[in-house]
Design brief:
By secondary structure, this protein is mainly α. Helix content is about 70%, strand content about 5%. It has a 3-stranded antiparallel sheet, with helices on one face.
């Protein structure tokens, strides 16, 4: 099928997904310039692609079939995802000679408004795991810290772990970084999944280190202002260390050896 025709059909067939996506953009006016830039960049690629290749119809049929099933009985985000993947497939196939890698689809999914759902479903267990691990590390360091719900108890102090401290945003960022590296270096699907697994472990470990470090500030065990710049600085340093370690671990020593 002609790639430009396929893209037009996908945009028309998945009209409800675009309405739901627009409803999840806080400021639609701010998204319009991005859409115009995307369309401007995609136009020459589509024109070039229509002259040199035909879009395979089977993957597109599968994605549109998933969208049709999701429209019947699925939450809005599950309806947006296959529609966005179908658009990405059309653009990639029109502009590239290779089949889209799994990491390409991963980047599209992570670019969707998944953070609210991710925080809703995973914030509590991630916070609980971070608190339990932080308490264990503190006890290993000789500090009598206990767990009280979603807080650390230290003597008469009760140090709360609020939602922003759950580490979900760090987890999403590590997934996105792993997906970008996998796409850049042409990882196979299995190496990409391994990279996502490493990103998950490093994000959880980085959040535990950050939470444990913040305990020393909140418990006033260090001569620093817990409510001032030190709190933000600890978070920035923990994230930077996690991202750097992820880059070192995931990045192949010889990129060409991992291309599939």
């Amino acid at each position: 099928m002609n790639p430009a025709l396929a893209l037009a059909l996908v945009l028309a067939a998945c009209w409800s997904a675009w309405l739901e996506l627009a409803a999840r953009i806080p400021d639609l006016a701010a998204a319009l310039p991005l859409a115009l830039v995307t369309a401007t960049l995609a136009a020459p690629l589509m024109a070039r692609g229509t002259q040199r290749r035909v879009l395979p119809i089977t993957p597109l049929t599968i994605l549109l079939g998933l969208y049709a099933l999701a429209v019947i009985a699925a939450p809005p985000l599950a309806r947006i995802a296959p529609a966005a993947l179908a658009v990405g497939y059309c653009l990639h196939t029109a502009s590239q000679d290779t089949t889209p890698r799994v990491s390409f689809y991963g980047l599209i999914l992570l670019a969707l408004p998944v953070l609210p759902s991710l925080e809703f479903y995973t914030a509590y267990p991630v916070r609980l795991a971070a608190i339990e691990a932080s308490a264990a590390l503190l006890r290993m360091n000789g500090i009598a810290a206990g767990v009280d719900g979603l807080a650390l108890r230290f003597g008469d102090q009760l140090i709360q772990f609020d939602a922003p401290c759950s580490g979900v945003r760090m987890l999403w960022t590590c997934w996105f970084l792993a997906s970008a590296l996998a796409h850049l270096y042409g990882f196979s699907r299995w190496r990409y999944l391994a990279a996502l697994g490493l990103a998950t472990l490093l994000a959880i470990a980085g959040n535990i280190v950050r939470a444990t470090s913040l305990f020393y500030l909140e418990a006033q065990l260090l001569p620093l202002d817990a409510a001032g710049w030190a709190h933000d600085a600890v978070g920035i340093v923990a994230f930077a260390m996690t991202a750097l370690l992820l880059f070192i671990v995931v990045r192949p020593r010889r990129a060409a050896g991992y291309a599939a």
